[in-house]
Amino acid sequence: MVFGPGRLAFLIRAVGEKLLSRPGPGSACRVISAWLGNGETGACNRMQKAVVRCVPSESKLSISFTLVGSQKHMQRDQSEQLGRVLSRIASNALKGQSKKSKKNRTEQPAAVEPLVRLSYGDKVVAEDVINADAWQDGAVLEVGDVKYLVERNPPTFKDVELPRYIMAGFPVCPKLQIEFGKLEESDFQWYKAAKDGASADAVESWVEAGSERVFIPTNSDIGLKLKLRCRPGNSQRYGSAQELEVNCTVEAGPGNCAFDNRHLYTKKIIEESLIRIVSYNILADVYAQTDYSKDVLYPYCAPYALQIDYRQNLIKKELTGYNADIICLQEVDKTVFSDSLTPALDAFGFEGVFRIKEKQMEGLSTFFRRSKFSLLSQHDITFTEALLSDPLHKDLLEKLCTCPTMKEKFLQRSSALQVSVLQSTKDPSRKICVANTHLYFHPKGANIRLTQIAVALSHIKHVACDLYLNIPVVFCGDFNSIPSSGLYHFIKSGTISEHHDDWVSNGEEERCNMSLTHPLKLESACGEPAYTNYVGGFHGCLDYIFIDSNHLEVEQVIPMPSHEEVTTHQALPSVSHPSDHIALVCDVKWK
């Protein structure tokens, strides 16, 4: 019996009701077994699978299955009629049988094209039904005597990767991309290798080691390999499992890290009325791996401790140990954001956004805890583009045009400002404007930084006060300015004189005296630490978390590492600290 598109639509609805009445993995299998008259799910489980990926927004669907011992992956138009696909499958099956006969050098009667059909329940799907409607979950594809259970859009891992360097005591966070499923509804099983016997060539066996998405190896695992078996899932079923074996063995950790004692203050996620904020320049790999960094900036740091795979272990453990609600990071490599930080922090409940600098491979990232905040909007800018194109900065641009040398230098800089408006998941009336930046670094660039911060503060004010009608501001970053600088004074006081010495920080040729003001009431939540950057030739306070004192107040500042901890290995970075900067961490509360 065959049926057309109208009858098919009715059956699909009926099947959907049956499937929904049988929740959980295997429900579609049980339903199709009953319709096929198998009497039990075992026959269904023994069927081969034909996996169909069909997304409404795409023009094609894919059909993947094993045919005559060969894996087939067909791409077909969703609007194409089913009959053309079935004809192609029959032709492929015939070719496969012919090749098999030649390979085996057997004389057999000429192969006959097998009967190929698609059935749904106890009905055969008409060949004029289009692919998008024909290939339904739970249908059965028959190719001669072989039957395939169709799985349409099962949970699938599109990408699974494990870190290339693993240390005892540090979280192992796989990079995972899932389609048609949720990571929190997927299964994870970790194994560690065990030798069967004492000889060097003994066969390895695998011992179960953990069942969480993140695995933390112990010292007893040093020298062993790890393996992950993961099965993608959703609330209805599981997809095909994947197994990955780590190429490296577990290495010993560095011992006590500079951030370990700080974690004693941040063991738990704080209550809803508080917000824990982290600001941290994590040292971009693109800078750490230069010869200048290795030979001049950080000659005291062991070369292996500057490797990104090593440092990422420390960074992920440090960040997750703070149990923060908002994390603002600077000097984030594009690949580090996508391949390392996002998978790791996602596993701990964070969502993140990234803003790359112009003409650079690194930028800014802001992460927020999903249980506390949702992302309402983004308002990122680069300082050069905003100054030239946004009427908001018209007066500042006119002043800068009177100083062509400084203007040209300003426009050569690639610094950016990341602005994210977050909304409380518990109280939608509570919104917060989170800004994140990394200003020009040069010691004689105070005049450039002043101009950058003027653009930044005008833009933040526009977002927080004009677009969102006076919501609180948190402004984090590496400002490359010490507390005695004009920039720090300007942010806190709201004004700077045109006669300030910082306007001539790089000589008279770049002098551009400007009197600036801003209306925000900002204070440094962590005060003025002795230093947030400690390298061989310099130490000083360059990083800040500024909060809106009209709406927020400080509840707690997490103590900085002791001087002894910072200088254990002379300076930063080191084998026990991944960056040349130190993270700022504080808890604030709504007024």
UniProtKB/TrEMBL annotation:
Keyword annotations of the record: Exonuclease, Hydrolase, Magnesium, Metal-binding, Mitochondrion, mRNA processing, Nuclease, Phosphoprotein, Transit peptide
Any single biological process term in GO: mRNA processing
Gene Ontology molecular function terms on file: metal ion binding; poly(A)-specific ribonuclease activity
Endonuclease/exonuclease/phosphatase domain span: 279-581
Reported cofactor(s): Mg(2+)
GO CC list: mitochondrial matrix
2',5'-phosphodiesterase 12-like N-terminal domain segment(s): 154-251
Compartment list: Mitochondrion matrix
Entries under InterPro entries matching the protein: CCR4/nocturin_mRNA_transcr, Endo/exonu/phosph_ase_sf, Endo/exonuclease/phosphatase, PDE12-like_N
Family in the record: Belongs to the CCR4/nocturin family.
Protein name: 2',5'-phosphodiesterase 12
Organism: Microcaecilia unicolor
Lineage: Eukaryota, Metazoa, Chordata, Craniata, Vertebrata
